[in-house]
TrEMBL record:
Organism: Shimazuella alba
Region (Disordered): 31-57
Lineage: Bacteria, Bacillati, Bacillota, Bacilli, Bacillales
Domain of life: Bacteria
Protein's recorded name: Beta-lactamase
EC identifiers of the protein: 3.5.2.6
Subunit structure: Monomer.
Entry's transmembrane regions: none
Catalysis: reaction(s): a beta-lactam + H2O = a substituted beta-amino acid
Amino acid sequence: MLKGVGVGLIALSVLIGLILFSNGTLQISAEEKQKQPTSPNQVKDQAVSSSKKSSPTQITNADKTIVLTQLNDKVWAHTSYNDYNGTTVDHNGLVVSTSKGVVLVDTAWDTLENHAKTEELLEMIEKHLKKKVVMALVTHAHDDSIGGIQALLDQGIDVRSTFLTAKLAKERGYPSPNPTLDAKPVMKVGDTVIEAFYPGEGHSQDNITVWLPQHQILFGGCFIKALGAKDLGNLSDANVEQWDDSVQKVIDKYPNVKTVIAGHGQWGDKSLLYHTIDLIKQHTSQENSNHE
């Protein structure tokens, strides 16, 4: 008799447990179900949210003539726009955040008469990065790289270049940068190492590159062409015959480069270096065929 009662109690306990387990499972399933998108719009919203997380952070000024694009936690590209032969063209530079302040590579695309975009660029950097520009490097003496130099000097910023760029700047009416990069191409600003390199003539006789070894980022400036470029662009001061040899020196010097920033157009990887050489060969071939 007692044995039968015991078996019955055990069976009852098992039944109650199954009911509780079933209810718990149903409750968990309902909660998980609530987390799933229930409409195409929800699916779209989640996809957009995910896309936003993976997109680079961008900051623009009111009239969208200056854009800051975050490359990593310390380095931004600055892009400004100007009219060139009736077409709106972009120009890229770098903003490097260090423990001692910001290093700017190239000014915004200003002119000798008007350096308003560089003034606004400095304001944007201080507002959003909470740091001031303490040093600037000019990669060559064309408007798109040096046009805003007066705005930098007005704020007491140390503007550096090679001796040749300083000389050409003065000849073109610009204030002279501090010509220190020939003797001291490698600089340590706070916790950040920055290296200037003169590979030889190319886009201009004075063009240099800027290397950030800790980030494996190479700023090629107008010396390097973006993958979207179909030709070599402005050749008014170019040495096309020497250009490909100069690019090869950069390839040999920086085998570990991960990101390459061209002066105009979209940045990418080291394929930009080889694309530039291809464009030089294409230009040379066309020139040779025209003279046959």
